[in-house]
Amino acid sequence: MYLADLPADILARAAKIRLAAFDVDGTLTDGRLWYGEDGHETKVFHVHDGLGLKRLQANGVQVALITARISHPVALRAEELDIAHVYQGQGDKRGCLLELIDALHLTPEQVAFVGDDLPDLPPMRIAGLAVAVANAHPWVAGQAHWQTSKSGGMGAAREVCDLILHAQGKSDAERERWQ
């Protein structure tokens, strides 16, 4: 059964989350970079991830995107999903996350960070729930508290959203909402 047999420590960590922060390339996307003939970048986002992010927000969990790259498609997707906390061009993701934690009056234990590659290690090390997507670099997976079964850009973010909602006792209400 979906979300069954989750370790008690993961559920305890997820129950505390008030902010879920996500890397973009390789986490919300499959990590590939697409450029058109005109040089403009295109990204592909999974619709399941988008609904998961919307449901987190509807249930009182804030969402942030923290990415090292700057990309117009990221801004468009964030706007579409009503994500207020979007930080692009962040060479220091840890510092960015710490500033956001402070601004929102949270503690690190109330924050999840989801990533896939080496620049995601510093923010993962301070997060109360550090998550690696299924196809994350082995060093990242080794530092994560939990790893998704789906790869980045293929529904991994939705798994994280569902985990948090489940741990916070909101899964049944979400399921009922759609019946």
From TrEMBL:
Mg(2+) binds at D23, D116. Its EC number is 3.1.3.45. GO terms for molecular function: 3-deoxy-manno-octulosonate-8-phosphatase activity; metal ion binding; N-acylneuraminate cytidylyltransferase activity. GO terms for biological process: lipopolysaccharide biosynthetic process. It comes from the Bacteria. It is an enzyme of class 3 (hydrolase). Its cofactor is Mg(2+). Substrate binds at D25. InterPro entries: CMP-NeuNAc_synthase, HAD-like_sf, HAD-SF_hydro_IIIA, HAD_sf, KdsC_fam. Catalyzes the hydrolysis of 3-deoxy-D-manno-octulosonate 8-phosphate (KDO 8-P) to 3-deoxy-D-manno-octulosonate (KDO) and inorganic phosphate. This is 3-deoxy-D-manno-octulosonate 8-phosphate phosphatase KdsC.
